[in-house]
Specification:
The chain is mainly beta and about 325 residues long. The chain is built from one helix and 19 strands. It has a 15-stranded antiparallel sheet. It is globular, with a radius of gyration of 19 Å.
């Protein structure tokens, strides 16, 4: 699924980094130059995760599930651009100007130019408890090219797509807005997001939406760690020599139906179990039930997916 090599170099306040994936999602990932000469501020240029979505901005090595939810198909993901980020003890803000993705890595197809920004705030934050609130928005102008939204059933390894808008022509521009709510207390964590995409063009207005809710718990008693500067949860650090076990459950939905577009609606219910041996090494198991009601052909379809992974991140 992934075979990623990364490298980085530092000189005074400058940092250059690049990573390439030789796995199924073959291509360049984050490839950036960053300036850190200002206190609690960062300026980043290059192919980077756009300022949108808690789930997208969390490293894939630190997610409780094998894959990001189907709801993330509406978020920008990796884009080339220039961004500015700043933070304080309880809040963080990031804004950027973005073009297209460096590689076509099977996300949404919405070529053009845009601006995205994200603000996060932690009204409660201490060693045991964190409460996270977040909001993000993106404006994107199309380049006279079709927009296409689609999703695989629960895994990048699956070839078929149950829901697919196919090419939508005549789109001038679009807004995407996301809201985030998450909380953790000791070894328990709840995380959710809702995303709405509105497209405008000669053919009229279209709206697509997605949501997910995830609950997880670490059985070894470790406390979930939260980063207020990035507005995301960090990976679990197991205390015991044998590691720790993490259980997680998630329900996610993506609706690509809005007349005259019949892309379908997909709901995924996932139960996961992780054996976290070290902060860098873990074994993962996911059982996912996928329902397309209907799929892009107007037919109800059910898929059951069992996934396992042994993951090592140096």
């Amino acid at each position: 699924r992934r075979a990623r090599i990364s490298t980085s170099a530092r000189w005074r306040y400058w940092r250059a980094s690049a990573s390439y994936d030789f796995g199924i999602s073959d291509g360049w990932k984050t490839t950036t130059i960053q300036y850190a000469g200002f206190r609690k501020q960062r300026i980043t240029a290059g192919n980077q995760v756009a300022a949108f979505s808690m789930e997208d901005l969390t490293s894939s090595a630190q997610l409780p599930m094998l894959e990001r939810s189907v709801a993330s198909q509406l978020s920008p993901g990796l884009l080339q651009g220039l961004s500015y980020r700043t933070w304080r003890d309880r809040w963080g803000f990031q804004v950027g100007i973005y073009g297209d993705e460096l590689n076509d890595l099977d996300r949404r197809r919405f070529e053009g130019r845009g601006v995205a920004g994200r603000f996060t705030f932690a009204p409660v934050l201490n060693e045991q408890t964190a409460v996270h609130l977040g909001a993000a928005t993106e404006y994107r102008s199309a380049k006279d090219k079709p927009v296409r939204l689609k999703a695989r059933p629960g895994s990048r390894l699956a070839e078929n797509r149950l829901i697919d808008t196919r090419n939508i022509d005549g789109i001038d521009d679009g807004w995407t807005t996301g809201l985030e709510l998450a909380a953790s207390h000791r070894n328990l964590r709840v995380q959710s997001e809702a995303i709405l995409m509105s497209l405008d063009g000669a053919g009229g207005d279209l709206e697509f939406n997605s949501q997910y809710l995830m609950v997880s718990a670490v059985l070894g008693g470790e406390t979930y760690r939260y980063s207020p500067s990035r507005g995301v949860f960090k990976g679990v650090r197991p205390h015991a020599g044998w590691g720790s076990v993490e259980l997680a459950a998630r329900i996610a939905r993506l609706d690509l139906d809005d007349d005259p577009v019949s892309g379908g609606e997909q709901i995924e219910t996932t139960i996961g179990a992780n054996w976290i041996l070290t902060e860098d090494l873990k074994a993962m198991f996911n059982f996912t039930d996928i329902e397309a009601s209907p799929n892009s052909r107007g037919v109800d379809e059910d898929v059951t997916l069992i996934s396992v992974r042994l993951q090592y991140d140096m």
